[in-house]
Specification:
Blueprint: E1 11-15, E2 18-21, E3 26-29, E4 34-37, E5 43-45, H1 54-58
Antiparallel strand pairs: 1-2, 2-3, 3-4, 4-5
Bound molecules: zinc ion.
Zinc ion is lined by residues 3, 5-6, 8, 21, 23-24.
């Protein structure tokens, strides 16, 4: 399962059903819920409209 944002395979497992993308610097889970990781380690949910970035679409 690649990153739901960039589709990349540079991901690592960080927890149960939770993964980290080294390309996007985000975490995501198997429900494709995406979280940005703050400097203090806090996870902040990213809204789906972020995915409408043209660069992201171009990689699909
Ligand atoms: Zn990614």
């Amino acid at each position: 399962m690649g990153c739901p944002v960039c589709g990349g395979k540079q991901v690592g497992k960080v927890g149960v059903n939770q993964y980290y993308c080294w390309n996007c610097f985000i975490e995501y889970n198997e429900r494709n819920e995406v979280f940005e990781v703050a400097e203090d380690g806090t996870l902040m949910a990213i809204e789906p409209e972020v995915f409408s970035d043209p660069i992201t679409q171009a990689t699909v």
